């Protein structure tokens, strides 16, 4: 089933060429769709458009067949419950003045009336936070710490825990391992794969790292200068039919 359908999406900023130009793709329920391209090609702009953080100039974004590109903030609330994002920099994504437990509980409090959780249960704040931390392989004692008291890998796991706390259907992963060391990168990728299977999640995995995208994704898309230049199944990555730009990325794989 198509979970997300994007048709001819275009986004420009004042005084510049289109950051995203006439881009179309579909993301199926339960899959990880990878998007790879060099820095500045429009990947993060696309992510912000899909989250409706940025308005689009033209085109359409459909979630489960329903167009969402023209919805106002009130109308977007049910959509925001179903799609979450994990950003590149976990330090910027977490409020430095809040303890980890308060950052984790915030999405639940915001959407509590609309939630019908199946994987997590809420009996108390402490118990709920404990479940979330254990789901991302962190110890419960971290709940009372502040972000600066955690390592980079631990902070990113917290942002992942916050993203899954309201059991969304789709998570946009925008360079989720770019700020981590090699060991932490591998651990976080393994965790994300496990969570996708356990929680029946779908991912749009965005990265400049072709190796990470190849490891995570069933299907892959390649983006350059705001345009989607090709889409293919992962097992077709090394096909001779690949675009010359994709072959360039493979050469530095």
UniProtKB/TrEMBL annotation:
It comes from the Bacteria. Transmembrane segments: none annotated. PROSITE patterns: ABC_TRANSPORTER_1, ABC_TRANSPORTER_2. Residues 4-250 form the ABC transporter domain. Signal peptide: none annotated. The keyword Signal does not apply. One of its GO terms (molecular function) is ATP binding. Keywords: ATP-binding, Nucleotide-binding, Transport. This is Peptide/nickel transport system ATP-binding protein.
